[in-house]
Amino acid sequence: MPKFSVIVTFDVTEPHLRDSLDSLGRQKDHAPGDIEVVLVPVAPHPEPSGAAAEAEAEAREAAAGGDPASDQAADAEAAESASDTDDSDDGEDSADPGTAEERDPDTDEGDESVDTARAEGLAIAREFAAAPPPGLAAALVEDTRPTHSAARHAGAAASAGEYLMFVEGGDTLTGYALAYLADSLERSGSDLATGNVYRFNELGTRPSSAHRKCFAKTRTGVDVHAAPALLSDRLHGNKLWRRSFWTQLPHHHVADLPDRAAGRAAPDPDLDGDLDVVRALFAAKAVDVLSAPVYLRRDRTTADDRSRIGALTRRITALTALASALSGADRDLWDSRVLRGDLRVILLRMDDADDDARARFLDLANAYLDTVARPVLDRLSPLHRLNYYLVRKRQDERLLEAITFQKSVELKKAPVVRRGLHYFIRYPFFEDPQVGVPREVYRLDAELKVRQKTERVEWRDGRLVVAGRVGILNLRAAKRWHQQLLAFAVNTETGRRIPVPVKVRRAAEYRLPDVLTAARHDYGGFEISVDPARLRLSGQWRATDWRLELIVVNRGLVRRRVIGNPVSGPPERPPYHQVADNVWVRPYWNRDSQLTISVAPVRARVAEHRVSLGGARPELVLSGEFVAPPAAEARTLRLTRSPGTARLTYPLEVVGARFTVRVPVADLIDNAVDEGARGLRQEHWRAHLITPDDEAVEVVLPDEVASAAYGTGDGYHEVVVQRTATGLLRLRGGWAHPVVRDVEWSGRRLLISGRYSAEAQAELVFKARGRDEEHPVSLERDGSDFRAVFTPADIPTLSGTLPLSAGGYQLWARVRREDGGLTDIGAEISADLLRRLPLRMETAERAYTFEDSGSEVPVLRVGSDLRPEEQGSFAQKRLRETVYPALREEGGREEILFDSYTGRQFSDSPHSIYAELRSRGGRWADYPMSWLVKDGQVNLPEDLRRVRHNGHDFYESLARSSFLVTNSRQPAWFTRRPGQVVVQTWHGSMLKRIGFDIENIRGKSRDYHEKLAWETQQWDYLVSPSPWATPILRRAFRFDGEILETGYPRNDIFFSPEREAIARRTRERLGLPEGKKVVLYAPTWRDDKYYTRGKHKLDLHLDLRRMYDKLGEDHVLLVRRHPRVVDSVPIVGRDFVYDVSLYPEIMELFLITDVLVTDYSSMMFDFANTGRPMLFFTYDIESYRDNLRGFYFDFEETAPGPLLKESDDVIGALLDVDEVAAAYGAKYKAFTDQFCPLDDGRAAKRVVDRVFGAD
Description:
- 25% of the residues lie in helices and 29% in strands.
- By secondary structure, it is α+β, with helices and mostly antiparallel strands.
- The strands form twelve sheets. Strands 38, 39, 40, 41, 42, 45, 46, 47, 48, 49 and 50 form an eleven-stranded mixed sheet that branches. Strands 1, 2, 3, 4, 5, 6, 7, 8, 9 and 10 form a ten-stranded mixed sheet that branches.
- Helix 10 runs antiparallel to helix 11 (328-347) and helix 14 (382-392) packs antiparallel against helix 15.
- The N and C termini lie far apart (94 Å).
């Protein structure tokens, strides 16, 4: 009988089934015949159902509601709620090119039938079943099931294994998944084991945010009450089920469900299949939760729009059915989860729902709330209590206002107020007598929790000193008496508490760098001093662990906090210290990021290490000595691959008190994990000596024994003997990593030197953290030594030389593999260099710091161009509310302040107006002019003064300049000074709805329209591009001032006598090859695809590789990101893709463009002046038009080129562009006549004449 039955359920049109099956063939550590694979086909759906993707999206939203024990922080609520709840993991685009509609790029001609796709899908399954990989058995269930749920049950019934694993077609297992999960179950006896989940798409692999909290650490034998976060883990595929447990579960069968075709609101077996997992978790007596990823989940779309009456009815009915089956503590836990997560997901979609759907939601939600115990409601946080108070009162209009609030930046800014002895948060309708929400709804209690960070851990005069900042959220210790501290060392085994000295110190505001010039200081600093002698037990040095606990007393509130949360850098690697012979105190951070002080008598240590080449295969030889019991009893070395996914054991050769062990180098290399498009890598091995009683003894690598890397001879890999942050032995086997041994600043240059043991071709690159951006580093190699030079303050770009933008940049090696592909390998920092970091260089604009970000990872930290006294919310509030009004009172000065896209560019109509003014000479030749620049990322001519966005000079220029010429929104606090002239040139041409015409304002504050109305009152002039646009601009902005119907000045370039010369210079500047047709792809940004507010993702749906294959011979592709998008453009092929996002003026790019590919960008109105072809890649037109922004006219009917939904359609149109252009000639002319009648090369002159005076 097989040990494992892996049931693979697959849509018959699934194009990625082979990936799933290949991952089963890679399973390790199993005997032949241990694994049987049962393949069960599922009927195709007209739309992707996203069965488990929906479950995961739901799990993410449920997790956002928080656990009952931890849902306490108003700021956490804000962080979780600030993003749009669009049912996609991580707020990222979860669209997957591998859906049923995907086409084979090598064979498809655009007309493949469903029957053909079906035959191909089944053919892959039949091929695998007929000839499975060695050691596997496989069978195909011929009958197609209607749902994945039904297919799982059919597969389980047709299987015989002791353990069950379910994989959905297109997803994959990690190579160690089955062995890792089974090993845990066999040791624990639990009902099921669940492992972590990663998400992936064609761009790479990333941890699933929905599973991050649940899998933060490994736990065995827990239930949902001990680990409530388990209720957010709702996939089937990341779990290994005991068959005996699975067969006892109540299972729903499709035949038993009411007829969904009849319109009833029955649970959908796939869309609500996540609730089957919840039922199982409640039924399980014990669950093993394993932190390592076992399941790689492919991104999918979902067709379940829960703002629609049918979908929300079905979902709430399913939630209610599950609740009715639970009782007691189980029911309370589930109700808490539903109200914080599942139901709130639907509630937050009600601003997209119609009246009938909102009424149905109120009916169903109230019916559910009728059954919820009062204590469960009382334990909700204020935000949830407010939501459900409004639901109970059926105040749908006020509920919509509350929803808008929760999706806006207002949530994070809600102030805390005190009334009597209690604190309340000022959410909507607080103390509003017309609404009458009881004050207790807003009361804060447990939500007022401690926030703390550790900024120093060091030994001083033999004592361990721990320092940082601490305080109760929203209760700043502005005065010394506001906050008092007590500190204790607490033994983790006995609970013994020892008071230790702690000092309150004055420090910078919590979120600011702790420097004297910070904008605001308070008494939130602390410093704890621990005498290690007090950590002895009964006067003896014994192996034990201690933690540090702070008691914070603030205005009568008492809170406890275990010291944790180290800031990036040296605090992440606290030094160890010898306190007696062979006794060390080794501070370290546990998996909860809490500081643990380990008293660690040395029991075994390494004396030397080497690689032996004398045998049949190379061996790593470790020699050492036993120091203290029970080490001398050990006869085995156990290596455990972090984070616990595999074990290797080797016998010790023991002679007296010394031991030697031989580890085959190939074992470490072959057992390294490198999966998920190399986004999942495990190469480190923890080392323990194992006694006959299975006691694990840690092995120390003393400081006097150097770490070393040994190349394997293949040019790519190495084995490394390393010392952990606590001085213990650790091995690494896998890709060779460059080790940085020395760093220094020489002027503005960063000089890096180090060692790289591999012979492979490699280069160094700094990659931005948190966004897709990278910068190569000049590298010289001399054998295994290397030197590199990087100038972070002087980066060559298409806009000239610029500094790196603020943020962190990690150092990587980019290695060319034998197959020609590239792999990125993280660089490391040597132990000697670690002690000298951080190293800082300052320019007049900002600081650059080379530092360790933890785990020996080298990072270049680039600071803001704002001065310390300008940084932080308090500093900005002071500049806004105190400095700016005072500057306004000083009166005006001669200055024109220009702004393009809030300081992001030197471009657009403001640039044209600036050029027109300078060209006139006279008083304008040397008139003071300045330009707004964000984060130093714009180069300016010498006659323009740079104004730093949000700096003191920004507030001063807005307060005192004579003229403001901008194409962007201005801050709500800006008030035009008497005599000041504001010219709003705007930047769009009215395809997408703007201003007051946008019905659903996503992510904006409730007073968005009020702020917009105030802002437009500050404008003197509004520039219109055409007679058609003028009435729209007046209505959309409710602008009563003068509209300059002049055309957009930026389009004057198309009529310039210098345009041919400009085009020639532009081609030379870009280095484009001669004779190739230039295609410019310039998409707009997507409101719902972003990292954080104002930082949007590159939602790239073009298949660049396929474009290169089809067009690369005679085309080049320029890609231009919208200014809001922060990702870089992937470069494919040779001399084909050019990222021109930083080119300062897009109008110059238009001059060299033969074909424009865009979507809904207003640049179509500008490019129409060239008369050259336009293609519209509108893959998401229904969603964009109907849900995100909406259009002013029938775009499909009016567009001067074809609307294309697939990447292959774009390629085909480019290959036949002359025919396409001819077909759309009449529409093109009509488009130009309607939208471009004023474009004649004199728009800037007309604007300047009216605003600044005629020549």
